[in-house]
Amino acid sequence: MRTNGFEAPHNAMQISTWIILPILIFHFALFVTPTLPYCLSIPFSILFYTLAGASAYYTYVTTKTDSMDERLYEHLRGKPHPNVLKRKEKKDKQLADDANAKKNTSVEPSGATSVESTGVDDTKDEDKDEEEQDEEVKYCWVCQTEVHVHSMHCKYCDKCVSHFDHHCMWLNTCIGEANYGTFIRSVWCLTLLNIVHLLALILYYIGYFTNSWQIRERSEYMKEGSPEIIMGINLGVGAFVFAVVAMVVQLLMFHQALIRDGLTTYQFIMKDSQLKRDKMVFNTRLKERRNLELSKIQAEKGSSVRKTLIKIGGMKLCRPCDPIRKMLVEEKAIADSVLVPTKSTDDDFLETPSPSQDGQELITYPNATHT
Description:
Structural class: mainly alpha
Radius of gyration: 30 Å
Number of strands: 6
Distance between the termini: 21 Å
């Protein structure tokens, strides 16, 4: 069972991050900062090194943080998780402050009954309900203990993770409730870092090819004739940084969409898998119904026009006017009006997932490894 991403076994993707980031910082310091004019070099350097420090810090914190389920932590170590103790202290302090505030500010009319006199406090029932809700658990057969209902078992870290999002191969650790915030900050910092690097290189290219800002002269700080060498290095690094920017921007947009929709990466993957299964089942039934209708028309010597429409409806471009598709969608709408309402789209059809599909087995063995 691995506590954090710095514990073995390490992987090639994680090791590459330890190599790439220092190389990019070294490249910026040696081949970008000295070649740009001071009016560009100073602000770009300050911004770049600030973002580099923030990226390294948030990446380190995310990798170092243990996202283990609180119940599993107590089961293994025989003591409550530090977060549980912090919440308890905060709650006790809040209750004490509320009690003191009531004693100091309450002015009761004659005959009125106070909370203190009766010993009844409505907030206790609310706290009790919250505690019961927090105590929703399920059993993990791998960890051999009860864990919170929103926790999931990661096969790479061999532990249940609180509010599991995904296992990040680049950081070699699980991303969950404990480190998702620092993970998003690290993605933001890395995105901005690479964008700043790319913009500085673009300005370098402009100055070099337009012979502006004395870029060529500044590039001779190493030795005479070095501008061509520096230009070649910057072209290669620029292509690499552009590819990195494309990847991290896509990753950032993906997680921002998940935050907006209130989903985790794992929930998104399971939802997407369910949609694909539903679509596959729908297409199978669509094909069977189409063949059945064509067989009926042929056996009954029905209208050749309807037969042609049914055949044309099987083409991708003619899906909106497909009579068989419309027929299945109408049947689904009727079924939904009788049973529990579910989602209704042209391609999402048929059975509601069985109880064995919507939770326990899937949560116990997640296969999500996307970053």
